[in-house]
Amino acid sequence: MRETLLSILVLGVAACGGGGAKYHVNDNSLATASVQEKQGVLAAQQEKEVAKTEQQKAEADLKNIENEVDVADNDYKTAKLQLDTAKLQAKTAEQANDVNRKNQATHDVRVAELGVKSADAKVDWLNKKRKWIKAQRDAADDHFAAADSRYELEKAKLAQQKGIKPSDDFNVMNFETDNLKKQQKYSEARMDSDKMQADVDRLERDWHAQQAAFENSKASR
Predict the structure, then answer these.
(1) Structure confidence at residue 220 (pLDDT)
(2) Contact 151/159 with Cβ under 8 angstroms?
(3) I need a labelling partner for 51 at 20 to 30 A (CA). Which of 81, 86, 121, 158 fits?
(4) Does residue 18 surpass a pLDDT of 60?
(5) What phi-psi label fits residue 16: left (phi over 0), alpha (psi between -120 and 50 degrees) or beta?
(6) Are 22 and 178 in contact (CB under 8 A)?
(7) How many angstroms separate the CA atoms of 58 and 51, rounded?
(8) What span, in angstroms and rounded, lies between the C-alpha atoms of 31 and 140?
């Protein structure tokens, strides 16, 4: 969707929230430019739309992972309760000196312990994944800011090319400096997010291994 609100913003007005471009060119000042001349502007506008989609996806992913973490926390508490129950039953069997009950109770405790380890591993994995998704959301925000700044820079370059001066203090260098800063910030945020993925994948593998051991122990009853 075209960013129609940008048409009312003028050069030198700071962006209203969201970390967008610091400088703006009034779209009306470029009304005489042809579509061909606006190719750079249109490409930058398309990047903004992509970045906005990234923001929306990151927010949706964050809501989903918050729910998954809550469920995993409850599952861990349940697993701990099952372990406590198994230990009490094992103590009762020990006091009764019932060999069959003792053997079963010992097995149940071992299964419950593996259940706790699996549940704990899942919580660790999902908590790390939540941090990763938050980093992705931050990167998406920085991408949008960088794309918005590029969009305004392309408009400023076009204005300069056509000999248009949107305001008395118009200076393309201001747009270039702002865009460079925002592009660097986005690049750093993206790298930080990418670095976290390896740990997320490792913790997921650890959980799958723990879960497999738990399922195998239950099947051996």
Answers:
(1) 75
(2) no
(3) 158
(4) no
(5) beta
(6) yes
(7) 11
(8) 31
